[in-house]
Specification:
InterPro entries: DNA-bd_HTH_TetR-type_CS (IPR023772), Homeodomain-like_sf (IPR009057), HTH-type_TetR-like_transc_reg (IPR050109), HTH_TetR (IPR001647), Repressor_TetR_C (IPR004111), Tet_transcr_reg_TetR-rel_C_sf (IPR036271). GO terms for molecular function: DNA-binding transcription factor activity; transcription cis-regulatory region binding. This is Transcriptional regulator. This protein is mainly α. The chain folds into 2 domains: about 60 residues, Arc Repressor Mutant, subunit A, CATH 1.10.10; about 120 residues, Orthogonal Bundle (Tetracycline Repressor, domain 2). Helix content is about 70%, strand content about 0%. The protein has 11 helices and no strands. The longest helix has about 30 residues.
Length: about 240
């Protein structure tokens, strides 16, 4: 069942004793208890032991608070994510992808703030631009054109984010409704679908983006980039001849 939107009441603070950092920190604490969807200003005021007007003094609406939380979450995430190195681009890009996936799957609040919320504050968006720029620069140095480097990183990023969001939405729906997923409700008849029955029996998932599916698709992206780099090297060699 979904967590009920409640907050532990703290001793009342003195007027003027709260600041934006305290509010953001408290919002993360409360979100861990009730989730981003159920986070509200009144609940946060109760959690922090202040009147709700003290919060509105710094954050006029919930979206402003969520933007500030996203800023902080994205900054921590960017600093914790390895960049792509030209000398070992394939392995570092793979590690980059897996680190993104594990980080988001391991932190539902981070996932909800950065991936599911569509509105990012300008500062958060700028942090994302700087991250992508560094990764693309590494791929260009490895031998891809800027266009192919962008397409490669973009494909990897979309693959990571899509797989994580699907998993997170599955968890949210299951918690809210207690109903099985589409895949869980599918009945595979070995007589009419022998191939699906065979792969399902060995642990493969048809719809869910599990680690096996994720690795397969990631390898397809990396293999395509490797072919592009190799073709570029051959093209340069012919030009010198």
């Amino acid at each position: 069942m979904a967590k009920q939107a409640t907050a532990e009441k703290r001793p009342r603070r003195e007027r003027g004793s709260i600041n934006p950092d305290d509010i953001i920190k408290g919002a993360f604490e409360l979100a861990e208890q009730v989730g981003i969807d159920n986070l509200s200003m009144p609940l946060l005021g109760k959690h922090l032991g202040v009147g709700v007007t003290s919060i509105y003094w710094y954050f006029r609406k919930k979206d402003d608070l969520l933007n500030a939380m996203t800023d902080r979450a994205l900054k921590q995430y960017v600093f914790a994510t390895p960049y792509v190195e030209a000398k070992d681009w394939r392995e570092t890009l793979r590690n980059h992808a897996w680190t993104m996936r594990k980080t988001f799957l391991g932190n539902p609040i981070l996932c909800d703030l950065i991936l599911i919320r569509s509105a990012l504050s300008p500062r958060a968006a700028q942090l994302g631009v700087l991250e992508v720029e560094k990764a693309i620069a590494g791929l260009v140095e490895a031998g891809l054109s800027p266009e192919d480097a962008f397409d490669t990183y973009s494909a990897m990023s979309v693959h990571v984010r899509g797989s994580v969001v699907l998993q997170r939405l599955y968890e949210k729906n299951l918690a809210a409704e207690g109903s099985p997923s589409l895949e869980d409700s599918m009945v595979i008849d070995p007589e009419s679908a022998p191939l699906l029955a065979q792969v399902s029996a060995t642990g493969h998932h048809i719809i869910a983006a599990d680690d096996t599916n994720f690795e397969y698709s990631l390898n397809c992206i990396l293999d395509h980039a490797a072919r592009k780099i190799e073709a570029g090297k051959k093209g340069k060699g012919r030009a010198r001849d």
